[in-house]
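2024-03-11 09:14:02 INFO worker-7 job=invfold-0412 stage=load source=structure_tokens
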């Protein structure tokens, strides 16, 4: 049975993906990941869809990973295999012929923020905030977020966000082009729908070829960064520093990192 915490609805030429786990600010666990990957696979196979909206119920687009669910599901896969599965699943976004508009509100954190960055257009409700806190947990962003933000914001901003984990506010995100519009929370869904309808009404070949030009400019950097992330994150998971990070937290002491 499909996981209803991530669902797909089709209305004519417009598809809508909805994150529906509001009690946890739409934090994702493994089952939600797989449901999303199945949805993306379905959309990749459909040629009748002209635009996709990705939205959320509740207060936030997604607070990232459901930390409480980590380790709760026994999976017979290595860390590298899990990451490869995740990359393969989310990179289906690049193979969907219809552009994806992400309607973001509240918090967009970690992998969920990075997944939105892979999509075509992002709009935000007033007061939205965006964060890549992975380094504070001893790891690195590993879903293309660093590559995309580098394209949008440049070296200084992406380095600040990744190394310190600080939040980016909606107005800053607009200034850097991370989002293209800020609207009130009440207008968010309607604005996304209006944008999708305008795209769906344009000649299909025009939208397809315009996106192809943009993809040729942006996609190589994204794929290259994700290849690096796959290797480096796998190394980090087995590093001495990560072992020390976990041990020090469990023992409630200051860690002694060696850089290896």
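2024-03-11 09:14:09 INFO worker-7 stage=emit residues=260
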């Amino acid at each position: 049975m499909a996981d209803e915490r991530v669902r797909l609805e089709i209305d004519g030429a417009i598809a809508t993906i909805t994150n529906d786990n509001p009690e946890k600010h739409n934090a994702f666990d493994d089952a939600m990941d797989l449901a999303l990957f199945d949805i993306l696979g379905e959309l990749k196979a459909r040629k009748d869809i002209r635009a996709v909206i990705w939205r959320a119920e509740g207060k936030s687009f997604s607070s990232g990973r459901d930390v409480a669910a980590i380790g709760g599901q026994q999976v017979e896969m290595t860390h590298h295999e899990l990451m490869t599965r995740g990359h393969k699943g989310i990179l289906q976004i690049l193979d969907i012929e219809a552009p994806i508009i992400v309607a973001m509100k509240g918090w967009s954190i970690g992998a969920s923020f990075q997944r939105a960055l892979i999509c075509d257009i992002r709009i935000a409700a007033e007061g939205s905030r965006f964060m890549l806190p992975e380094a504070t947990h001893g790891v690195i962003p590993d879903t293309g977020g660093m590559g995309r933000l580098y394209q949008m914001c440049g070296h200084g901003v992406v380095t600040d966000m990744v190394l310190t984990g600080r939040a980016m506010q909606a107005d800053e995100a607009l200034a850097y082009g991370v989002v293209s519009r800020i609207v009130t929370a009440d207008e968010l869904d309607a604005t996304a729908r209006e944008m999708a309808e305008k795209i769906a009404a344009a000649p299909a070949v025009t939208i397809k070829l315009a996106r192809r030009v943009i993809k040729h400019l942006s996609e190589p950097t994204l794929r290259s960064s994700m290849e690096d992330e796959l290797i480096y994150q796998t190394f980090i998971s087995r590093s001495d520093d990560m072992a020390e990070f976990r041990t020090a937290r469990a023992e409630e002491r200051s860690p002694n990192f060696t850089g290896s």
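2024-03-11 09:14:09 INFO worker-7 stage=report msg="The chain has a mean pLDDT of 95."
2024-03-11 09:14:10 INFO worker-7 job finished
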